[in-house]
Design a protein that fits this description.
The chain is α/β, with parallel strands linked by helices. It is 26% helix and 33% strand. It has a seven-stranded mixed beta sheet, with helices on both faces. The longest helix is centred in the first third of the chain and has 15 residues. The chain is globular. The N and C termini lie far apart (47 Å). Catalyzes the irreversible transfer of a propylamine group from the amino donor S-adenosylmethioninamine (decarboxy-AdoMet) to putrescine (1,4-diaminobutane) to yield spermidine.
């Protein structure tokens, strides 16, 4: 049968992938890190037995975190990515010529190190001259920033271990302070099949902090349930009111200008989480 990796997504459900070999495994200061070469998904980054990204489907997550807020903001110059040590969101951010500086704050330097080694198609942009990489606590970086960023993207793991604070109302309030007067932020907020309470909680907390709060979705097959949500908080700009001239041709595999608006059309059971 060979070797298989299984992520146990609930107590009674999981996803499994056939593994060719383990490329690297270690216990970092923050989490268990493993790089796997898989039959179906190419190289795969696993943290604490949870799939973070794979070579085959990574583009969906990274494009949807980056391009939805960046096309919503009329002139994003300074962008912060919290987490995201694999570099995929940074790669997408740099496709916007208006961006003068992209700052990555990743708490675990080992994620950066081994992503560069085993996921070069994802992490290669971390060497770009517009990028500043900081191995630091994203929560504290936000707390120490004020009116500094046009767009902030929270590319975190699920709310366990070092990522717990990144799902708190205080963190969203700190993000509001760290953003400029017309700033936008987006965070991954897990899936509605297994984490409905989390989505409901985050949406409520963000809505109390930002005048415009929206949830959007994407299909990511290696993430729990395959249906993934993102929550956006905006001070001024409505992602559903972007003028046609804002859009420009961009090299993507998932995101399109048509999808920009369509991704906010939610299945009813997901929309209900934003109305209770």
């Amino acid at each position: 049968m060979g070797t298989w990796f299984t992520e146990k997504q609930t107590e009674s459900f999981g996803i499994t992938a056939k593994v060719k070999r383990s490329l690297h495994k270690e216990k970092t200061d923050f989490q268990e890190l493993e790089m796997l070469e898989t039959e179906e998904w190419g190289n795969m980054l696993v943290l604490d037995d949870m799939v973070m990204t794979t070579e085959k489907d990574e583009f969906v997550y990274h494009e949807m975190v980056a391009h939805v807020p960046l096309f919503t903001h009329p002139n994003p110059k300074h962008v912060l990515v919290v987490g995201g040590g694999d570099g995929g969101v940074i790669r997408e951010v740099l496709k916007h010529s208006s961006v003068e500086k992209a700052t990555l704050v990743e708490i675990d330097g080992k994620v950066i190190e081994y992503s560069k080694k085993h996921l070069p198609s994802i992490a290669g942009a971390l060497e770009d001259e517009r990028v500043e990489v900081k191995v630091d606590d994203g929560f504290m970086h936000i707390a120490e920033s004020e009116r500094e960023y046009d767009v902030i993207m929270v590319d975190s793991t699920e709310p366990v271990g070092p990522a717990v604070n990144l799902f708190s109302k205080g963190f969203y309030e700190g993000i509001s302070k760290a953003l400029k007067e017309d700033g936008i932020f987006v965070a991954q907020t897990d899936n509605p099949w297994f984490k409905a309470d989390l989505i409901r909680q985050v949406y409520g907390d963000v809505k109390e902090t930002f005048p415009i709060t929206k949830v959007y979705t994407a299909n990511i097959p290696t993430y729990p349930s395959g249906l993934w949500t993102f929550t956006m908080g905006s001070k001024i700009y409505d992602p559903l009111q972007v003028s046609e001239e804002r859009f420009f041709d961009i090299d993507t595999k998932y995101y399109t200008k048509e999808l920009h608006g369509a991704c906010f059309a939610l299945p009813k059971f997901v929309k209900d989480l934003t109305e209770e």
